[in-house]
Amino acid sequence: DFMGALDEVHAAFGSSEEELDACITNGIIHFSPEIDRILEEGRLRVEQVKKSERTPLVSVLLHGPPGAGKTALAATIAMQSEFPFIKLISPETMVGMGELQKVNAINRVFQDSYKSPLSVIVMDDIERLLDYTPIGSRFSNVVLQAIAVLLKKQPPKGKRLLVLSTTTRRHVLEEMDLLDSFSSQLYVENLRKLEEVNTVVKRLELFKMDGERHTAMATLAKSGLEGQLTIGIKKLLMTIEKARQSEDPITGFVSDMNNL
Amino acid sequence: DFMGALDEVHAAFGSSEEELDACITNGIIHFSPEIDRILEEGRLRVEQVKKSERTPLVSVLLHGPPGAGKTALAATIAMQSEFPFIKLISPETMVGMGELQKVNAINRVFQDSYKSPLSVIVMDDIERLLDYTPIGSRFSNVVLQAIAVLLKKQPPKGKRLLVLSTTTRRHVLEEMDLLDSFSSQLYVENLRKLEEVNTVVKRLELFKMDGERHTAMATLAKSGLEGQLTIGIKKLLMTIEKARQSEDPITGFVSDMNNL
Amino acid sequence: DFMGALDEVHAAFGSSEEELDACITNGIIHFSPEIDRILEEGRLRVEQVKKSERTPLVSVLLHGPPGAGKTALAATIAMQSEFPFIKLISPETMVGMGELQKVNAINRVFQDSYKSPLSVIVMDDIERLLDYTPIGSRFSNVVLQAIAVLLKKQPPKGKRLLVLSTTTRRHVLEEMDLLDSFSSQLYVENLRKLEEVNTVVKRLELFKMDGERHTAMATLAKSGLEGQLTIGIKKLLMTIEKARQSEDPITGFVSDMNNL
Amino acid sequence: DFMGALDEVHAAFGSSEEELDACITNGIIHFSPEIDRILEEGRLRVEQVKKSERTPLVSVLLHGPPGAGKTALAATIAMQSEFPFIKLISPETMVGMGELQKVNAINRVFQDSYKSPLSVIVMDDIERLLDYTPIGSRFSNVVLQAIAVLLKKQPPKGKRLLVLSTTTRRHVLEEMDLLDSFSSQLYVENLRKLEEVNTVVKRLELFKMDGERHTAMATLAKSGLEGQLTIGIKKLLMTIEKARQSEDPITGFVSDMNNL
Amino acid sequence: DFMGALDEVHAAFGSSEEELDACITNGIIHFSPEIDRILEEGRLRVEQVKKSERTPLVSVLLHGPPGAGKTALAATIAMQSEFPFIKLISPETMVGMGELQKVNAINRVFQDSYKSPLSVIVMDDIERLLDYTPIGSRFSNVVLQAIAVLLKKQPPKGKRLLVLSTTTRRHVLEEMDLLDSFSSQLYVENLRKLEEVNTVVKRLELFKMDGERHTAMATLAKSGLEGQLTIGIKKLLMTIEKARQSEDPITGFVSDMNNL
Amino acid sequence: DFMGALDEVHAAFGSSEEELDACITNGIIHFSPEIDRILEEGRLRVEQVKKSERTPLVSVLLHGPPGAGKTALAATIAMQSEFPFIKLISPETMVGMGELQKVNAINRVFQDSYKSPLSVIVMDDIERLLDYTPIGSRFSNVVLQAIAVLLKKQPPKGKRLLVLSTTTRRHVLEEMDLLDSFSSQLYVENLRKLEEVNTVVKRLELFKMDGERHTAMATLAKSGLEGQLTIGIKKLLMTIEKARQSEDPITGFVSDMNNL
Ligand SMILES: Nc1ncnc2c1ncn2[C@@H]1O[C@H](COP(=O)(O)OP(=O)(O)OP(=O)(O)O)[C@@H](O)[C@H]1O
Ligand SMILES: Nc1ncnc2c1ncn2[C@@H]1O[C@H](COP(=O)(O)OP(=O)(O)OP(=O)(O)O)[C@@H](O)[C@H]1O
Ligand SMILES: Nc1ncnc2c1ncn2[C@@H]1O[C@H](COP(=O)(O)OP(=O)(O)OP(=O)(O)O)[C@@H](O)[C@H]1O
Ligand SMILES: Nc1ncnc2c1ncn2[C@@H]1O[C@H](COP(=O)(O)OP(=O)(O)OP(=O)(O)O)[C@@H](O)[C@H]1O
Ligand SMILES: Nc1ncnc2c1ncn2[C@@H]1O[C@H](COP(=O)(O)OP(=O)(O)OP(=O)(O)O)[C@@H](O)[C@H]1O
Ligand SMILES: Nc1ncnc2c1ncn2[C@@H]1O[C@H](COP(=O)(O)OP(=O)(O)OP(=O)(O)O)[C@@H](O)[C@H]1O
Ligand SMILES: [Mg+2]
Ligand SMILES: [Mg+2]
Ligand SMILES: [Mg+2]
Ligand SMILES: [Mg+2]
Ligand SMILES: [Mg+2]
Ligand SMILES: [Mg+2]
To answer: What is the residue with the minimal CA distance to atom 17 of ligand 1?
Structure first.
C-alpha cells in the first residue's frame, strides 16, 4: 500500500521535511493574489506528475528578485505534495565541497528519487550550486552539465519525479541554455503596493495599535512611495523587526522604508 | 553464421536495446512526410554500410531544435538495422565523470564495435558529451579531440560501423571543425503546421470526442497560429498531457499553445 | 544560566578577545560625531540580535577607505556585545593557506558559532579573504561562494548570530553580488577637517605645549589644507609618530601633512 | 650489409607498414598530373636523405583541404623509400592520452629512428596531434614545443631521417611558427575538373556501361559544375559508393554531386 | 641585555649579513647628494622603529629604474641598523620554488622576525618574488596576497619590525593595490649628470692619469650627452670595466657611453 | 694549477664539448666581415670575464633570423674560451620535461658553474626553453622567472661566468623585460649579398668547375636577386645540398634560390 511504500522510502533515504520547514520560519503571508496563484500552479503540477503516464518528469523553475520568497514557496509546494520522497538540494550543505563532490551529492539525490514511485526534489538557489559569479561569468561547468543532464533524464519505468528549482538569475540560466530543460517557469514578485506592505505589517503586529499602523502607512503614502516601491518579503521582515526594537517604531519603520 | 555472430557479440559486449527503447517511450507518430523521409534515409545508410567494401565507416548527424525528436528517430533507425552490435553513448550515464573517464567510456564503445562485423553506435547529445556551454564557449577539448579522431578512424579490415549522432548545436560543431568528420547530415524539424499538431492530438486521444478536437484546432487557427507555429514533438506531448489533467482541456490546451 | 553558558562556550571554542584587542592598540579617539553614530548603530544591531525571534541572523558591512579605522570599530562593537561567542576571521591567520583550507577555517568559525546562543563574528578585510586583486579581477571564487552561502544561512533554532565584516572594496563586493547578503552597511570615513586632526594631535600629545599645536594647525590652515584634506586615522597616527621622532616636530608634521 | 641492418632495425622497433597500408585502402588513382609530381618530389627527397652528408635531416609538410588524399600520398612515399625504419605517428593510436603521454609516444618514435641508418617518420594530422580546436585557438603547447624541437634536432652522426607530415591547417602551423621547421612543403589539391572526376568514376567502375558514365558526366557538365567544382578524393569515393547502392545510380550520383 | 638578545636571535635564526654584503660588492659611491639623502631617510626610519611605541611596524619601498642601486642601498641601510635580526628575502634563493614554497619561505622570515625585539627584513625585487611578467600581466596572486597581508600584520606586543623592499615596477605594485601597504617610498634615480659619471670614473680609477679622464669627459660633453644621459650605476660599472680591458680605454669608454 | 683545476671541473661536471661540436657540423664559413666581428666581440667578452674583478658575470645575447648561424657562432666562441667549465643548455635535451624539471635542469647547470673558477654557459634557443608560442603569447612563466633571476645572480666570490644565449625572438624577450638582464647583444644577420652566397657555394664545392659557378651566380644576378636577397646560412646549405643531388645542379640551384 501507498503508506507502506512511503514509510519504506523514508526509511531508506530519509527526508528533508525538517530542513524544508526551516525555509518557512515566518510562514506564508497571503499579501497578494499572486501568492495563491503560485501555490495553485504548484498543486496542479503535483497532480500532473501523479497522474499522466506520458510525463513522468516535470520540472518547474521559480525565479524572481532576492528575498522575494522563492525558497519558502517551493518548500511549501513540496511539503503539500505529500509524496513519499521529498528532498532539498541546497548550497548550504555544500560549503567547501569541490565540483565533483557537489555533482555526486546532487546526483545521489536524483538516483535515490528514482527508487520512489513519486518524488519531489527542491533544488534551491541554482546559481549558488553552480558557484556562479558575475565577475568574469565564472561558474562550475561540471555542475552545470550534471544539472542539465539530470533535468532531462527520465526516471525509470513506473517512477515519477517533480523538480522545483529556485533562482534569482533566470537570465544567466538562459545564457547557459538551461531554461529549455524546465517544463515551466513561475515568476515570484517583490511587494510593490503599500496595501501589500500593510497586510504584512498588520499580520506581524509591528504596532500595538491599528492607529499607529494607519499613521505609518499614511506617512509612507504621502512620501510618494506607492508606484516606486519594490521590496522582497525577506527584507520587509528584517525592516519590521528592526523597527520593532527601536524606541519609536513608527519613525524607525517609515525612515527605513524610505531609505531602501 | 550471422545469427551466431550476433549472439556472440551480444554475449561479449551486451546491447543498448533497452536504453534505446526508453528513448521512444511515446512511439513515433508520423505527423509529417519528413518523418518517413528521415527513417528511409537512415535505412539506406544501414544498407550502404552492410554492402559497400569501400566505405566501411559511415556517420550521420541528426540535428535540429530542442525536443524535435532527434534521439527517438536515431534510436529507431538503430533498432531497425538489426546489426549484432547496437550501442548508445549517452551523457546520462556519464554524470560526474571526468574528461578522461568520458573519453575512455566513448573509446571503449568504439573499440568494442570494431569486434563486430556490423555495428551501430548512437552517440546522443554530442554537445553534452563535450560539456559545451555557450558562456565563454567552454567545452572539453579532450573529449572533442577523441570524438574527432574516432569519427575518422576506419574499423579494422572486415568490420563495418554506422555512427548516428544527435545535436541541437550544429553551428557549434561547425566552428569546432567537427562537421567535416560526418559522412552526411539529417535535419529534424519542429512541427510547423496545425494539421501536424492535429495528427498528434488525435493520435494521443486528448479529447474524448472528435468535435472537441475540431473546436480546439479551429480556435487555434482563428488565433492566427498557423504560419508562426513552431513546437517540438516533446513540448507538444508535455502540453497535451498538461491539458489532459485540467478540468477544461480545450481551454487549457488552446491557452498553452497560444503562450508557447 | 547565561554566565555558565558563556563559560561553556568559551571553554569549547576559545575566544578572539586578545586578537580583537590588538586591533585597537591605539584606542578609539572620538574625533568626530560619526564615530559615535557608528558605535551606536553597532550597539543597536547587538540588541536586535539578542531580542527579535524573527531575525536570528543580522550582518553588517563596515566599508571605507584604507586605514579609516574599520577594523578597530568592528572589534570595538564586537567586544562591547559581551556575547559568549566572539570570534575574529582574519586573513592574517591564513597566510599560505589554500582555497579549501580557507573555506574550512571560515566555515568552522560559523559552525562553532551555531552552538552558542549568541555569537558575534568579525570577518575582517573580506577582499583579502577572497585573495582579490584588481589586475584581471582575480579572486578565489571558492571562498566567495562559501561566504555568500554562510552570510545567508540561518543559525539553527534558538541560536542567534551577528556578523560584522570590513572592506575597502564595497564596489567589488557589489559586482560580486555579495552586498545583497548583508542586512545593512556602515560607511567609515576618513578625517576631512583640520579640527578632527587637531583633536587627534592633542589627544596623542605630539607637542609638549598647546602653543606648538596651535602653530602647527594654523600653518596647515594657511596652506589651504582644509577642504581638500582626506586622511585615514591609521596614516595620521603614522605621520604623528614620525614627526615625534624628528628634531623639529612642527616642521616635520606640517611638511608631511602637506605631502600626503 | 644493408638488408641485415634493415632486419635488425625491424626486429628492434617493429614497423608501421601494415598501418600505412591501411591508409591507402582505395589505392592511388592518377586522376591528375599533380599526383605524379607529388610522388616524384617525394622520391627525390628520399634520395637526398640517402646521399647528402650535410643534410641528415629533411622534413616535408603535405598540406591541403580535408580528404584531399594527404595521408595516402605520404604513406605511399614512405613505403616506396624502403628505408629500414618506417613509422607512422597517428592521433588514432593516442585517443585519451594526456599531453605528456603523447609527447613521450612521439619522442620515442624519433629516438628509435636515431638508431637506424635511414628512417622515415610519417607524422599524420599534425593539428590533431596538437589537439587543436579553432574555438579559442586551443591546443597542446606541450606537444607543439616537442614537435618544434624534434623537427630541428639533428640525428646523431651517421644517421639520416626523413619526416613526412600532413595537415589541413597550414595557416595555423604558420601562426605557431612551425613552418620554418620544415625543409619544404607540398600542396595536395582537391579535384577541380570533371575530367578528373570522370577518371575516378571510370576506375571505380561505378557504372556497368561507359554510356551511363558519359550520360552522368554530361549531365554534370550541363549543370555548370565545371569551374566551381571542388571535392576531395575521399568525399568523391563516399559519393560514388553511396550512388552504387541506390536503385538509380546515375540520378543518385548526379544529384549528390550537385548538392556538395 | 641587548647584546645578549642579539646573540640569541643570531643563534636561533642565523643572519643574512654575508648575503647583504654581497649586494654591495662595489661599495657605495657618493656620486650625488641624493645618495646621502636616501641613506639619511633610512637611518631616520631605523630610529623611528626603535623608539615609537605606536608604530611597531614601518615599511619602506625603494623604487627606481633597473640597476639604479636599489638593492645596494637597502642592504646598506639594513646593515647600519645593527638590529639583532637582519634578513634578506631574495628571489635568488627561490629559483624553481612553487608558489606555496615561496609563501612559506617569506612567511617564515616574518614569523622569525616576530621573535626578535628589533628586526629588519630586506625584501628584494618584489616583482620577481611575485613572478611578474608584463605579457598578460601574469604573476603569483598567492604570493601577492601573502605579501599584502604580511606588510599590514602588526608584530606581537613588544616586537618591532622595519621592512625595506625594492622594485623596478612601482606602477605595477600600484595597480595591485600594494602601495597603500607601505609606510613610505624612496625613489632611487639613475645618474643623469656627466659630473656624477666623472665622480664614479675617478673613484674607480679607470684611467691612469687625470688628463685621460678629462679628455674622455670633455669628449662626452662635446657629443651633447649632458641633458639626455640616463644610466644606472650598475650599467656604468659594467661599461667602465669593459673599457678597462680594451686597448684604448678612452675611445672604448666614450663610444660605449654614446651607444647606451 | 689551472690545468689541474680544469681537469677537476671536467671530472666533476662533465663537459658539453661534443654537443657543441655537433652545432658546428658544417664549420664556420667566413662569408662576410660580420662573422669575424662577432667572433672577435666574443673573444673580448671572454677576456673581460677572465680579468675584471668587478664584473664576475657577463651575459651576451646572440639574436637574428632563423638559421642565421646563431647557435654555431655561440658554440664557437664558447669552445675557443677554453674555460674549464663549458656547458650547453638546449631544449633538445628537454623534450617532454615539465616546467619544474626544466627549471631544475637549467638551475643545476648554473649551480655547477659556480664551482668552477671560469665558466661558459651556452643557453640555446631561449624562446624554446620558455615553450613560447605566438598564438596567445603562451610560455612558461616559471622558466622565464628562473632565467631572469639566474641571469642577474652573481656567482660566489672568486668565480666568474660568461653566459651566451641565442634567440630568434628578441622582441618577445623585450616584452618579457628579459633584455635588461643581458650585459650586451650581438646581431647575427642573414646573407644579403650574392658575393656572400658565392663564397659559400665555392667553399662547399657545389660545382665541379668554376665556370659553372660563375654561370649560376651570373644568372642569379641577372634575375635581380641582389638587393632583395635574404637567406640564412642554414637554408643556403640545404639549398646547395638539394641542388647537388639533382641532375642539373645549376638549374636546380638557380630555381630554388629564385623561389625562396
Ligand atoms: N507570501 C510569502 N511568500 C514567501 N515567503 C513568505 C511569504 N510570507 C512570508 N514569507 C516568509 O518570508 C521569507 C522568505 O524568504 P525566502 O528565503 O523564501 O526568500 P528567497 O526569495 O528564497 O530569498 P533568496 O533570494 O535570498 O534566496 C521566509 O521567512 C518566509 O517564511
Ligand atoms: N515523429 C516523431 N519523431 C520523434 N519523436 C516522436 C515522434 N512522435 C512521437 N515522438 C516522441 O517524442 C519524443 C521525442 O523526444 P526526443 O528525446 O527524441 O527529442 P529530442 O529532439 O532528442 O530532444 P532533445 O533536444 O531534448 O534531446 C519521444 O518521446 C518520442 O517517443
Ligand atoms: N575613532 C577611531 N576609529 C578607528 N580607529 C581609531 C580611532 N581612533 C584611533 N584609532 C586607531 O586607529 C587605528 C585604525 O586602524 P584600523 O586597522 O582599524 O584601520 P582599517 O580601516 O581597518 O585599516 P585597513 O584599511 O588597513 O584595514 C587603530 O590603531 C585604532 O586603535
Ligand atoms: N590520387 C590519390 N591520392 C590520394 N588518395 C587517393 C588517391 N586515389 C585514391 N585515393 C584514396 O583516397 C583516400 C584518401 O584519403 P586520405 O585519408 O589519404 O585523405 P586525407 O587528405 O588524409 O584526409 P583527411 O584530411 O581526412 O586526413 C584513400 O582511401 C586513398 O586510397
Ligand atoms: N651610490 C650607489 N648606490 C648604489 N649602488 C652603488 C652605489 N655606488 C656603487 N654602487 C654599486 O653599484 C651596484 C648597484 O647594484 P644593485 O644591484 O644595487 O642595483 P639595483 O638597482 O638593485 O639593480 P636591479 O634593478 O638589477 O635589481 C652595486 O654593485 C653597488 O656596490
Ligand atoms: N659563418 C657561419 N656562421 C654560422 N654558421 C655557419 C657559418 N658558416 C657555416 N655555418 C654552418 O651553418 C649552420 C648554422 O646553423 P645554426 O644551427 O647555427 O643556425 P641558427 O641560427 O642557430 O638556427 P636556428 O634559428 O634554427 O636555431 C651550421 O651547420 C654551421 O656549421
Ligand atoms: Mg532562496
Ligand atoms: Mg535528444
Ligand atoms: Mg582593517
Ligand atoms: Mg589524413
Ligand atoms: Mg636589485
Ligand atoms: Mg639555433
So the answer is: A71
Residue of A nearest to B65 (CA): A180
> For the purposes of burial, counting CB atoms within 10 Å of the CB of F120, is it exposed (0-12), middle (13-18) or buried (19 or more)?
buried
**Nearest ligand to the C-alpha atom of residue F234:** 6
Q: Which of E33, A32, A153, F226 is nearest to B91 (CA)?
A: A153
With vertex at residue E154, the alpha carbon angle to CA E150 and CA E158, rounded to the nearest 5 degrees, is 135
E145 interaction partners in chain C (CB closer than 8 Å): 91, 128, 131, 133
* B·D CB contacts under 8 A: 67
Specify the residue for cell string 641508418. Answer: D117
CB contact under 8 A, F54 and E241: yes
Q: Does any ligand 2 atom lie closer than 6 A to the CB of residue B24?
A: yes
Helix A249-258 with A210-222: angle, nearest 10 deg: 30
Residue from B90, B69, B99, B95 nearest B200 by CA: B69
Per-residue pLDDT tens for F120-177?
Answer: 999 999 999 999 999 999 999 999 999 999 999 999 999 999 999 999 999 999 999 9
Ligand 1 pocket mutation, candidates A28, A31, A92, A189, criterion most atoms within 8 A of CB: A28
> Is E150 an interface residue toward C (CB < 8 Å)?
yes
- Distance, in Å, from the CA atom of E186 to the CA atom of E164, rounded to the nearest integer, reads 10
Closest protein CA for atom 22 of ligand 6:
F71
| Whole-number Å distance between alpha carbons of A123 and A126 | 7
| ipTM associated with this complex | 0.88
Report how far ligand 3's centroid is from the alpha carbon of C66 (Å): 9
Query: Phi-psi category of E28—alpha, beta or left, where left has phi over 0 and alpha has psi -120 to 50?
Result: beta
Q: Are F63 and F168 in contact (CB under 8 A)?
A: yes
b/e A105-143 (16+ beta carbons within 10 angstroms → b): bbbebbebbebbbbbbbbbbbbbbbbbbbeeeebbbbbb
3 state DSSP class of E136 = helix
Angle of CA points C190, C192, C193, to nearest 5°: 140
Residue pLDDT, tens place only, A201-233: 999 999 999 999 999 999 999 998 988 999 999
Residues of chain B neighbouring A142 (CB-CB closer than 8 A): 96, 131
For residue B100, what are the contacts with CB-CB under 8 A and spacing of at least 6?
B142, D96, D98
Q: What is the pLDDT of residues E221-243, one digit of tens each?
A: 999 998 899 999 999 998 999 88
Closest-CA residue of chain A to B95: A146
Contact C77, C164 (CB under 8 A): yes
| Closest-CA distance of chain B to residue D218, Å | 25
**Is residue B167 within 8 Å of residue B127, measured between CB atoms?**
yes
Closest atom of ligand 5 to E125 CA is 27
Distance of alpha carbon E239 from alpha carbon E253, whole angstroms: 7
pLDDT at B1: 59
Q: pLDDT, tens digit, for every residue of C114-170?
A: 999 999 999 999 999 999 999 999 999 999 999 999 999 999 999 999 999 999 999
| pLDDT at residue F3, as a whole number | 64
CATH topology of domain A2-187: Rossmann fold (3.40.50)
Pairing label, strands D118-123, E118-123:
unpaired
Q: Which of D145, D172, D180 sits opposite F131 (nearest CB)?
A: D145
Domain ranges of chain F: 2-187, 194-258
Contact E107 C91 (CB under 8 A): no
Q: List CB contacts (< 8 A) between B241 and chain A.
A: 48, 52, 54-55
Alpha helices, H only, D118-232: 126-129, 141-150, 170-175, 194-203, 210-222
pLDDT in tens, B193-234: 999 999 999 999 999 999 999 999 999 999 989 889 999 999
Is chain E touching chain B, with at least 3 CB–CB pairs below 8 Å?
no
